[in-house]
């Protein structure tokens, strides 16, 4: 967040934080959905994710492998992760399918 | 210096929810800078996509300190900053993170001068081959034939051979890299940070919006550029040239994928006629001839020494 | 000591750590002198030998942002070339000091004095001071470091000195010793430092409303700088005997009927003019602007109050209107005396106290004869008065004006 | 006398009869083009119009705004639209998830013309909702660019139907002019507008509550 100046000046400074362009999850038309059975925990999706919205959760896969956890709040749905996945464990699914789910989560 | 992906820092050097387009290569590249240099880095960013990607005050989308600066001043401002931090005894690595315009065109003069002075900075050119921030206009690094909003018929000139131009300044380290090969880029950044003086890394960064391809293909297209030989991964360390994998296996043209595989995925090359593709192929061959000749010369020199 | 050397010594005494500059006549000596002082070990600083003025200010700015005192100097086209960096530096609130050795801009090439370069910086948010002589060039440079680094201000500052007239003219001056300067100038302060660690960004996009707030804060800080300048000037006087408490200098203004206003080296000549005219029975004084930003509005207003005639000398023109100082001073003068702007000495044309006396006498006679000013702006060229274009079509030329109206 | 001074007055009256519109879309979806085409259609009918892009470095996918004004006579105004008579929403998710922004400042009884698969509840708002599944129309016609359905022309058809501000014929003509060099693209977009015109409905009754999971 913004940095305060002790002398009370208004300064052109910002601090690193999520959401500097808002909740960019809205931008998605498709979202990556993981099939944990296929995932080998190779870290490729994490490595290439342009948005840094993938975290590798160690030991969380069905075979004890690390699996990606995606932050849909900010994931822009570019599909890079699905394309670099060597075993096609990530699939891009149309966002429309999740629309109501999201509204319910938000408002209901 | 092999890079173990699982041992790379997990810290966020790019903040989710920034203003980059989906599939942006610059945010990918920036993450690797953070992973390689970590808390030592201070970024100097001249005008370009990376200025805007930071998003809106009071937040910013890069996980490192950033001094934004006017377009032509990247290398100069970094020079001053690096000197000041050194004088204050602060262990820092000042990094210029500039686009192709900020590097090859409007920023070239300051870059050349800083290289000549041997300033202790790493200069990274994030090359997306056009002025993307203003909406896809041609740059000195736009390749032959590419459509931009100022080359509707396709660019008639060739890409400026910038890494070679910078290498001609005889600085200690010049390398090319690609966002398709993060481990190579990270290793090069780490090497650069271990060397005092001016270091230059030219990062090939395919832009889905400007090149007209599906944003999910950013990394794939970057890899295709290397696999077809359109982009060559190499480094000059104290003047000695070395090809890096996988480019080192591609000296033999038959090992390279046809450039059509790279071109056909991009809308910016859609209008190319066979003769245009041929010209582009010749340009690729020319680049490889130069590299090969240099390598042969080095080999001869080595042999004469022993 | 030449004016350029005075400025170089000021940078040394201020313990500047990084200097980045590109040579341009008539500023070159500043760069050479500083390099010499560094080479001889007298000055503990680094010189960045940049390839252009744009890079000069950018590199000095980078160093200042990195937390050290930084300095640069330029002239004319060099200043024009670094223009965008002026805005960037000021709005980022990083203190930094620059000397501008005033010179005309081409074409045709002309390396001589004119205030066009300095005046083009007025809207950029920098503090601007203008020296009358080499001693003042040195003193104001030292003061500028203190004022720009004051937490109430946090803006960069420019010292102007006239090309060749001061920059290359040898004048005796008193160099304060290092202890005195150290006492006067506290260690560097700035609102933030760019260094590794905290992931902050300087200058990313802001909402338009916040942008306006940033601009308002710059404006208010410049207004607050008035007080800071007066304090620093008083303190400087206490330590050196040379006080710069006021933003203007008034010479025999109090009882004057006529006041000559202006800035720069020729205002010394204007003081002689005042004496000469007083001998002839014309009670004349001089109002010299030592600071252009913040603009000494109150001081000018007060000095002009109740006078018969205010003559403003300008050494550059705002083409299509009049001299910029004349225009600015017009905004401050309330109970307007007869006020006339005169443009002269542009592109290094020599102006002596006799010229100034001639200007004032001529204007005063006209005013006396007709009771008021008909043409408010003239260009004084080779001893003749040329009415300024915006007015000549509206007002009658003096020779056509009916006598005794 | 100043020779070029405007004389006559009556500007406020002209402003009051002006229809003001706000377009909500995502960067790259063509909200600005939609506003421009609307104005072109209005001009074809001898009206006056003005299309205002949202200025700035908006990125693909981000929520962007565009504005338009349509009037019988020229109105010398250049500020953004703060109290819209009509709001056009190009993307279903915007009205679902950013409803507050979509309804912000609308005049009482304003018309909301939205791309939706089914009507939604506008809550306490007095605004009237018109909806059409423009995404489906675009998909069926193959109006897809870089994986995204292009819905802006369909939404112009919906706008014509919901407001009568311009006729569908003018919309089609404006579209054909805009893509004059690419007749096939023009025809597809024109067809999208015509279909949307035919399919646009007003959501009369409050729709059923979204089922709780």
From TrEMBL, chain A:
What PANTHER family does its record include?
A: PYRUVATE SYNTHASE SUBUNIT PORD
Q: Which InterPro entries match?
A: 4Fe4S_Fe-S-bd, 4Fe4S_Fe_S_CS, PorD_KorD
Keywords on record = 4Fe-4S, Electron transport, Iron, Iron-sulfur, Metal-binding, Repeat, Transport
Q: Which PROSITE patterns match?
A: 4FE4S_FER_1, 4FE4S_FER_2
Q: Which GO terms describe its molecular function?
A: 4 iron, 4 sulfur cluster binding; metal ion binding; oxidoreductase activity, acting on the aldehyde or oxo group of donors, iron-sulfur protein as acceptor
**Cofactor(s) demanded:** [4Fe-4S] cluster
Source species taxonomy: Archaea, Thermoproteota, Thermoprotei, Desulfurococcales, Pyrodictiaceae
What residues does the 4Fe-4S ferredoxin-type domain cover? 30-59, 66-95
Name this protein carries in UniProt: 4Fe-4S ferredoxin-type domain-containing protein
**Keyword Iron-sulfur set for record:** yes
UniProtKB/TrEMBL annotation, chain B:
Q: Give start and end of each Thiamine pyrophosphate enzyme TPP-binding domain.
A: 62-202
Q: Which reaction does it catalyse?
A: a 2-oxocarboxylate + 2 oxidized [2Fe-2S]-[ferredoxin] + CoA = an acyl-CoA + 2 reduced [2Fe-2S]-[ferredoxin] + CO2 + H(+)
Q: Which InterPro entries match?
A: PorB-like, THDP-binding, TPP_enzyme_TPP-bd
Q: Does the keyword Mitochondrion apply?
A: no
Say yes or no: keyword Oxidoreductase present. Answer: yes
The entry's keywords: Oxidoreductase, Pyruvate
SUPFAM superfamilies in UniProt? Thiamin diphosphate-binding fold (THDP-binding) (SSF52518)
Q: Where is the signal peptide?
A: none
Query: Which EC class, in a word?
Result: oxidoreductase
Pfam families reported in the protein's UniProt record = TPP_enzyme_C (PF02775)
UniProt EC number: 1.2.7.11
Show the GO MF annotations. 2-oxobutyrate synthase activity; pyruvate synthase activity; thiamine pyrophosphate binding
Q: How does it assemble?
A: Heterodimer composed of an alpha and a beta subunit.
Q: What is this protein called?
A: 2-oxoacid oxidoreductase (ferredoxin)
TrEMBL record, chain C:
Answer yes or no on keyword Glycoprotein: no
Q: What is its EC number?
A: 1.2.7.11
Q: Where is the Pyruvate flavodoxin/ferredoxin oxidoreductase pyrimidine binding domain?
A: 10-232
Q: Which reaction does it catalyse?
A: a 2-oxocarboxylate + 2 oxidized [2Fe-2S]-[ferredoxin] + CoA = an acyl-CoA + 2 reduced [2Fe-2S]-[ferredoxin] + CO2 + H(+)
Q: Keyword Cell membrane: yes or no?
A: no
Keywords, sorted A to Z: Oxidoreductase, Pyruvate
Pfam families xrefs? PFOR_II (PF17147), POR_N (PF01855)
Point out the signal peptide segment: none
GO terms, biological process: response to oxidative stress
Q: Which residues form the Pyruvate:ferredoxin oxidoreductase core domain?
A: 256-356
* Top-level taxonomic group: Archaea
Give the Gene Ontology MF terms in alphabetical order.
Answer: 2-oxobutyrate synthase activity; pyruvate synthase activity
On subunit structure and binding partners, the annotation says: Heterodimer composed of an alpha and a beta subunit. Heterotetramer of one alpha, one beta, one delta and one gamma chain.
Q: What is this protein called?
A: 2-oxoacid oxidoreductase (ferredoxin)
TrEMBL record, chain D:
Checking Pfam families in the record gives: POR (PF01558)
Enzyme class, top EC level, equals oxidoreductase
* GO MF terms held by the record: pyruvate synthase activity
The protein's Enzyme Commission number: 1.2.7.1
The UniProt keywords, alphabetically, are: Oxidoreductase, Pyruvate
Which reactions is this enzyme annotated as catalysing? Answer: 2 oxidized [2Fe-2S]-[ferredoxin] + pyruvate + CoA = 2 reduced [2Fe-2S]-[ferredoxin] + acetyl-CoA + CO2 + H(+)
Domain Pyruvate/ketoisovalerate oxidoreductase catalytic positions: 27-198
Q: Which InterPro entries match?
A: Oxidoreductase_gamma_subunit, PorC_KorC, Pyrv/ketoisovalerate_OxRed_cat, Pyrv_flavodox_OxRed_cen
Record-linked Gene3D superfamilies = Pyruvate-ferredoxin oxidoreductase, PFOR, domain III
Q: What is this protein called?
A: pyruvate synthase
């Amino acid at each position: 967040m913004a940095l305060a100046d002790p002398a009370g000046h208004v300064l052109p400074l910002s601090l690193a934080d999520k959401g500097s362009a808002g909740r960019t999850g809205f931008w998605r038309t498709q979202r990556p959905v993981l099939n944990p059975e296929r995932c080998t925990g190779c870290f490729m999706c994490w490595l290439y994710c342009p948005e840094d919205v993938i975290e590798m959760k160690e030991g969380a896969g069905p075979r004890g492998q690390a699996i990606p956890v995606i932050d849909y709040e900010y994931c822009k749905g570019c599909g890079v992760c699905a394309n670099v996945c060597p075993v096609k464990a990530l699939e891009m699914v149309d966002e429309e399918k999740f629309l109501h789910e999201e509204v319910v989560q938000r408002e209901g | 210096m092999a890079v173990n992906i699982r041992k790379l820092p997990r810290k966020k050097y790019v903040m989710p929810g920034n203003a980059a387009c989906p599939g942006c290569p610059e945010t990918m590249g920036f993450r690797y800078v953070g992973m390689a240099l970590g808390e030592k880095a201070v970024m100097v960013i001249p005008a370009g996509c990376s200025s805007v990607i930071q998003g809106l005050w009071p937040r910013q989308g890069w996980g490192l300190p950033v001094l934004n600066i006017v377009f032509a001043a990247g290398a100069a401002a970094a020079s001053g900053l690096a000197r000041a931090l050194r004088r204050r005894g602060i262990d820092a690595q000042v990094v210029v993170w500039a686009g192709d315009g900020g590097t090859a065109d409007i920023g070239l003069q300051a870059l050349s001068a800083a290289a000549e002075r041997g300033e202790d900075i790493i200069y990274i050119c994030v090359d997306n081959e056009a002025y993307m921030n203003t909406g896809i206009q041609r740059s000195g690094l736009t390749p032959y034939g590419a459509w931009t909003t100022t080359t509707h018929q396709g660019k008639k000139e060739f890409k400026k051979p910038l890494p070679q131009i910078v290498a001609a300044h005889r600085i200690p380290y010049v390398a090319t890299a690609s966002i398709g090969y993060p481990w190579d880029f990270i290793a090069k950044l780490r090497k650069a940070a271990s060397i005092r003086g001016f270091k230059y890394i030219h990062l090939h960064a395919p832009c889905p919006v400007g090149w007209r391809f599906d944003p999910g293909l950013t990394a794939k297209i970057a890899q295709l550029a290397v696999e077809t030989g359109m982009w060559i991964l190499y480094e000059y360390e104290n003047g000695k040239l070395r090809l890096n994998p996988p480019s080192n296996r591609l000296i033999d043209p038959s090992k390279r994928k046809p450039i059509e595989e790279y071109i056909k995925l991009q809308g910016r090359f859609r209008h190319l006629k066979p003769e245009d593709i041929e010209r582009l192929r010749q340009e690729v061959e020319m680049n490889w001839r130069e590299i090969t000749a240099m390598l042969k010369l080095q080999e001869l020199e080595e042999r004469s020494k022993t | 000591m030449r004016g350029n050397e005075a400025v170089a010594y000021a940078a040394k005494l201020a313990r500047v750590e990084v200097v980045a500059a590109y040579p341009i006549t008539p500023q070159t000596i500043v760069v050479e002198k500083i390099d010499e002082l560094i080479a001889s070990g007298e000055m503990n600083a680094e010189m960045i030998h940049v390839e252009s003025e744009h890079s000069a200010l950018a590199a000095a700015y980078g160093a200042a942002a990195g937390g050290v005192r930084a300095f640069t100097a330029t002239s004319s086209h060099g200043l024009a070339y670094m223009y965008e960096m002026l805005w960037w530096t000021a709005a980022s609130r990083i203190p930094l000091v620059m000397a501008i050795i005033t010179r005309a801009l081409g074409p045709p090439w002309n390396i001589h004095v004119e205030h066009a370069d300095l005046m083009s910086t007025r809207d950029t948010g920098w503090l601007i001071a203008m020296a009358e002589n080499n001693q003042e060039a040195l003193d104001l440079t030292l003061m500028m470091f203190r004022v720009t680094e004051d937490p109430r201000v946090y803006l960069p500052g420019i010292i102007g000195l006239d090309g060749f007239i001061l920059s290359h003219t040898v004048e005796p001056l008193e160099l304060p010793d290092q202890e005195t300067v150290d006492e006067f100038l506290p260690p560097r302060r700035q609102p933030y430092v760019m260094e590794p660690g905290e992931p902050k960004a300087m200058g990313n996009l802001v909402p338009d409303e916040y942008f306006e707030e940033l601009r308002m804060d710059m404006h208010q800080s410049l207004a607050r700088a008035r007080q800071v300048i007066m304090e620093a000037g008083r303190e400087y006087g206490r330590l050196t005997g040379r006080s710069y408490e006021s933003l203007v200098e008034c010479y025999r203004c109090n009882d004057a009927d006529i006041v000559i206003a202006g800035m720069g080296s020729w205002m010394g000549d204007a003081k002689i003019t005042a004496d000469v005219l007083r001998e002839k029975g014309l009670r004349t004084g001089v109002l010299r602007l030592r600071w252009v930003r913040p603009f000494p509005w109150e001081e000018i207003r007060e000095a002009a109050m109740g006078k018969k005639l205010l003559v403003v000398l300008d050494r550059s023109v705002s083409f299509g209107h009049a001299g910029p100082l004349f225009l600015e001073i017009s905004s401050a003068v309330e109970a307007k005396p007869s006020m006339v702007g005169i443009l002269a000495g542009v592109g290094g044309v020599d102006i002596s106290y006799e010229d100034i006396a001639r200007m004032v006498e001529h204007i005063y006679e006209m005013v006396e004869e007709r009771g008021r000013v008909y043409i408010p702006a003239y260009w004084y060229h080779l001893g003749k008065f040329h009415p300024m274009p915006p007015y000549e079509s509206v007002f009658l030329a003096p020779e056509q004006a009916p006598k005794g109206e | 006398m100043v020779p070029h001074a405007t004389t006559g007055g009556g500007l406020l009256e002209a402003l009051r009869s002006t229809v003001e519109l706000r377009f909500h879309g995502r960067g790259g979806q063509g909200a600005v083009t939609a506003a421009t085409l609307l104005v072109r259609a209005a001009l074809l009918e001898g009206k006056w119009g003005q299309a205002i892009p949202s200025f700035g470095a908006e990125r693909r996918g981000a929520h962007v705004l565009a504005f338009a004004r349509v009037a019988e006579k020229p109105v010398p105004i250049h500020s953004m639209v703060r109290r819209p008579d009509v709001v056009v929403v190009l993307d279903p998710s915007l009205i679902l998830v950013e409803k507050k922004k979509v309804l912000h400042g609308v005049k009482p009884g304003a018309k909301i013309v939205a791309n939706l698969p089914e009507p939604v509840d506008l809550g306490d708002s007095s605004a009237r909702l018109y909806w059409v599944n423009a995404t489906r129309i675009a998909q069926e016609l193959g109006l897809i660019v870089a994986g995204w359905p292009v819905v802006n022309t369909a939404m112009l058809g919906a706008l014509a139907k919901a407001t009568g501000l311009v006729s569908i014929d003018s919309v089609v003509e404006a579209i054909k002019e805009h893509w004059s060099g690419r007749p096939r693209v023009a025809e597809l977009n024109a067809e999208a507008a015509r279909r949307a015109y035919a399919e646009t409905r007003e959501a009369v009754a409050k729709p059923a509550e979204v089922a709780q999971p």
